[in-house]
Amino acid sequence: VQLVESGGGSVQAGGSLRLSCTASGFTFSSDCMGWFRQAQGKEREGIATSSFGTISYADSVKGRFTIARDNAKKTLYLQMHSLKPEDTAMYYCAAEERWWCPSLDEYNYWGQGTQVTVSS
């Protein structure tokens, strides 16, 4: 299993970015996929998950971030709008071979992360 994130970068507050996560080595279409982030000095947190038609978001990103998946391309996306300095973090894609999404510590597969930096 391999997950490769891309699309991170530096933007000013109010800007937008789209992260991508290309997957290989597992089915993808019927599996749970999620985006997580970890700011410096803080614990990793879940921000969006997608599983078998069910999507959920952390309150901190609702209305600003959108998770989407292209099953044919085995790619997961995170569209981020209205970025804030507090969104600065390393963003990770994760996968779990279940049709429902478990808690953060139950994900077996993680990407290497892509850095997002939002300046004020």
* Portion in strands: over 45%
What is the terminal separation in angstroms?
37 Å
Shape: globular
Low-pLDDT windows of residues: none
The total of helices stands at 0
The biggest sheet amounts to: 7 strands, mixed
Mean pLDDT, to the nearest integer, reads 96
- The radius of gyration computed from the alpha-carbon positions, rounded to a whole number of angstroms, is 13 Å
Q: Percent helix among the residues? A: under 10%
In total, how many beta strands? 11
Q: In sequence order, what are the helices and strands, one letter per element?
A: EEEEEEEEEEE
List the SSEs and their pairings.
Elements: E1 2-6, E2 9-12, E3 17-24, E4 32-38, E5 45-51, E6 54-57, E7 65-70, E8 75-80, E9 89-96, E10 109-110, E11 114-119
Parallel strand pairs: 2-11
Antiparallel strand pairs: 1-3, 3-8, 4-5, 4-9, 5-6, 7-8, 9-10, 9-11
Give an overview of the whole structure:
The protein has 120 residues and is an all-beta fold. The protein is 0% helix and 52% strand. The chain has strands spanning 2-6, 9-12, 17-24, 32-38, 45-51, 54-57, 65-70, 75-80, 89-96, 109-110, 114-119. Strands 2, 4, 5, 6, 9, 10 and 11 form a seven-stranded mixed beta sheet that branches. A four-stranded antiparallel beta sheet has the order 1-3-8-7, with no helix packed on it. The termini are far apart. The mean pLDDT is 96.
Key structural traits:
about 50% strand; globular
Produce a short descriptive summary.
By secondary structure, the chain is mainly beta. It has no helices and 11 strands.
